[in-house]
TrEMBL record:
Belongs to the class-II pyridoxal-phosphate-dependent aminotransferase family. This is Aromatic amino acid aminotransferase. InterPro entries: Aminotrans_II_pyridoxalP_BS (IPR001917), Aminotransferase_I/II_large (IPR004839), ArAT (IPR024892), HisP_aminotrans (IPR005861), HistidinolP_aminotransfase (IPR050106), PyrdxlP-dep_Trfase (IPR015424), PyrdxlP-dep_Trfase_major (IPR015421), PyrdxlP-dep_Trfase_small (IPR015422). Homodimer. Pfam families: Aminotran_1_2. Its EC number is 2.6.1.57. Aminotransferase that catalyzes the conversion of aromatic amino acids and 2-oxoglutarate into corresponding aromatic oxo acids and L-glutamate. CDD domains: AAT_like. GO terms for molecular function: aromatic-amino-acid transaminase activity; histidinol-phosphate transaminase activity; pyridoxal phosphate binding. It catalyses: an aromatic L-alpha-amino acid + 2-oxoglutarate = an aromatic oxo-acid + L-glutamate. The gene is hisC. Residues 1-22 are annotated as: Disordered.
Length: 360
């Protein structure tokens, strides 16, 4: 028997596997998971019932065209069906966008730090990541990102609001940036946290995309709609891009359970968005309390806050965990803390207060 292992693509060498937020310990006294930007509320009754009904047909493949979901989305956003494509979470759709645009020799630009999947999916595609540091205020440096465009650039991610900082880019600066980007470079507006935005100066990507054929918008049911476990997201993009997404999709990737639950969520939108409203109130409370405690916290429009803790990050995360709150550390940089239910936020604020006192 030969000793050599199968030949794998060299691009995979050194690519880290995606690191999910740690789950809460099952055996501690209290354990709140504030590490994955999930919605703390369980699915609404109508959503649950639709999922249970779909479970009766597990022996069948799902509707590959996601017909009902697509038509619901087309009506809701006022876009043609041909401009829509679904996938296994918006990260699945992002990977399809890379497959459709980028390969060895090409460049993909994104801010850094931003969503940790970008470097992974870029390198898996074989393209070269071009990371443009956030400004000192933890905001996308769109001028520097436009300056980084070369003949090789194929795709640019703009994460709005940015994960993990929660910061946003506003309409005028985004328009100015898009005017500078060549029309053959795809700009992906990743709006995973769109429903949490309350700043009216932050543009809705769906309005921006309409007269810009090189803009694609990514949305997800994982965050505000609370369906992270079902893996369904979608893109709104002009036809050549949306058509390419249908070609690069894993056949039958979006389960019937996910499709039906997504449709039911859209129909239960008032209640769902009421819950989002509560989280937005909690976000304001958490932000204000942290600032009152003496922390510097960037203004956030997402369902999380960012504490730039530098070398103290790992220690902070460990203390939080001991006290029953799991946060998301980025060692050496900072910690991202999801806004959860009020009791979880109270506990986190108490731990943050005690930790900050020790810093002084
Ligand atoms: C900015 C951003 N985009 C996309 C995603 C992916 O979400 P999903 O694949 O669950 O739709 C996330 C999840 O954390 C995110 O933070």
């Amino acid at each position: 028997m030969s000793e050599t292992s199968p030949k794998l693509r060299a691009e995979l060498d050194g690519i880290p596997t995606y690191k999910p937020g740690r789950p809460a310990a099952a055996d501690g006294p209290v354990a709140y998971k504030l590490s994955s930007n999930e919605n703390p509320y369980p699915p609404l009754p109508g959503v649950l019932e639709s999922a249970v009904a779909a479970a009766h047909n597990f022996n069948r493949y799902p509707d590959m065209a996601c017909t009902e979901l697509m038509s619901e989305l087309a009506d809701r956003y006022g876009v043609p069906l041909s401009h829509l494509a679904t996938g296994t979470g918006s990260v699945g759709v992002a990977q399809q966008l890379l497959q459709a645009t980028s390969g060895p020799g090409d460049e993909v630009i994104y801010a850094w730090r931003s969503f940790e999947a970008y470097p992974i999916i870029t390198r898996v595609s074989g393209a070269t990541p071009v990371q443009v540091p956030l400004t000192a205020g933890d905001v996308h440096d769109l001028d520097a990102m436009a300056d980084a465009v070369t003949d090789r650039t194929r795709l640019i991610f703009v994460c709005n609001p940015n994960n993990p900082t929660g910061t946003v880019v506003r309409r005028a600066e985004l328009e100015r940036f898009l005017d500078r980007v060549p029309s053959d470079v795809l700009v992906v507006l990743d709006e995973a946290y769109r429903e949490f935005i309350r700043d009216p100066a932050v543009p809705d990507g769906v309005e921006i995309y309409r007269d810009r054929p090189n803009v694609a918008v990514l949305r997800t049911f994982s965050k505000a709609y609370g369906l992270a476990g079902l893996r369904v997201g979608f893109a709104i993009a002009h036809e050549p891009v949306a058509a390419a997404l249908r070609k690069t999709a894993v056949p039958f990737g979006v389960t019937q359970l996910a499709q039906d639950a997504a449709v039911a969520s859209l129909r239960a939108e008032d209640e769902l968005l009421g819950r989002v409203g509560m989280l937005v109130c909690e976000r304001a409370r958490v932000h204000e309390d942290l600032v009152g405690q003496g922390w510097t916290v960037p203004e956030t429009q997402a369902n999380f806050v960012w504490l730039r803790l530098g070398e103290r990050t790992a220690e902070f995360a460990a203390v939080c965990e001991q006290e029953g709150v799991v946060v998301r550390p980025f060692p050496g940089e900072g910690a991202r803390i999801t806004i959860g239910e009020p009791e979880a936020n109270d506990l986190f604020l108490r731990v943050a207060r005690d930790f900050h006192k020790k810093l002084l």
